[in-house]
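Justification of computing resources. Each target in the renewal requires a structure prediction run like the one illustrated here; the chain below, 261 residues long, is used simply to show the kind of job we budget for.
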Amino acid sequence: MKEEEVKTYDFPVLRVENLDLAYADYQVLKDVTFEVADGTCLVVMGGSGCGKSTLLKALIGLLPPRKGNVLIRSDDLWSSEFEKRAEILRRFGVLFQGGALWSSMTLLENVMLPLETHTDLPESEVGQVAEYKLSLVGLAGFEQFYPSQLSGGMKKRAGLARAMALDPDILFFDEPSAGLDPLTSRKLDDLINELKESLGITFVVVSHDLSSIYEIADDSIFLDSNTKSLLERGDPAWLAENSVHEHVRSFMNRDSSTDQI
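Resulting structure tokens:
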């Protein structure tokens, strides 16, 4: 990508510097550098095996890098001592593919759990905050429902409410549209945009769903399995038309109706 097209920000909420990631002797990614501005949505994309999920693991504290830094504001996640790292991680919210809700708990109890674990709020306030988070994602009135009673889209929204419980600096999503029909996926995209615009929430989203990428992304990075690198960065629509890499243009302009990436 041309240098003048790369977006830069003065005060990124997340900055990744020269990151190398590996499993034992197998290197997945090398020298990855990018940043994410407050109140924006960055989409991480690329083909199967390019390292999207591996990068996400490093960003949320599950996989230590071989080299490089993950900075949240000015705090370095991986060079911090245990207690400081735990404090940094509490500033994240994570929505996994399946929602990862506790099946034995109601939606209200699921959202209350991080508040009960990580705050000193009295129980009455914990319940009020949890109800508010559920209302933000359109689940007011479903507080006493169990995950098994919900549709796939409702589970994703409940997982999002729980991810928002501690008012995180960044929300990380792993394939939010996975397993959803197109209409439900679009509603989730609309919710992401609404939360970004109304609350200024910052999102980092791993996705291969083209319609979702074009709908929610303010910026994107493209990971490449051949070079094990961040191949290109920019607005998805710009990349689709102007990328110097044919591989990126093909990815961005493919027919995704039967996509299995």
